[in-house]
Amino acid sequence: MKMLDLLKYTVLVISLFLSYQAVEAHDKNFQVDGTYISAKRDVTGDQKIDIIQVQGLPYEKGSKFLKKIELSVDSNRSTISVPLEAGYNPDLKVTDLNDDGIQDVLVTVLMEGGERLITSYAYTFKDGKAKELEIPPPVPVMAQFLDGYKAEIIIEGQKPVVIDVSSRKQAYDEMGIYLNGKLNEPTELLVDPYSSLDLKTVLGKGKGLIGIQHVKGSDERDPILEIKSVWKYNNGWQLVKAQVKPVKGSNK
Fold first, then answer.
1. Reported pTM
2. Which helix (H) or strand (E) holds 182?
3. Keywords, A to Z (predicted)?
4. Which of 50, 97, 158, 224 has a beta carbon 3.0–4.6 Å from 104's, enabling a disulfide?
């Protein structure tokens, strides 16, 4: 083989290898330094594979906080971009959320602060245009302290759940919530937004979403209950079921 032909062959092999590596990386939804996630799906409905990416710009070198986050779709030699709010650890999921037969994009971003709450975004890119979709609302609940060092949570349409919080008696007495086991005044519990929102297969109903919310007592450092909810889209998000579970340290 002549030297020129050998050189051309070597360049071709290297090019093919790099192309394969790039495609394989996309297929694995790889992540680099917490600032880049990618997936390959058809999200525009044109029967061609698109590249979906979430990219973030760190606040400073080595920082996990991303001051700028962007969701983009490379489709048919054009790029559709959507800016997202700043935060940590973006997560990317691709599935058909609204049952229109076309894959949609779900991104969750961890918010700043110690509560580990998330901001969630759902988009359809049907026909090459970005349109924001609804996210399931928080579960409709009423939550309050009761006399006798108890807490009650009521989910709409379900029986009330009452738990014993006497393990926190000393702290609640010192804070003035209780006096001799009686409430000083009606006091509601703190119901957080979602700390997790992920895909779930709903038996007999296809894909849905599962969310986690926490119910807290005196402040953000006082978790009492966890609400796990399952949602399915049917001309809007419908609550399939919701379960309440005491967190460690609470006695039902």
1. 0.78
2. strand 182-183
3. Signal
4. 97
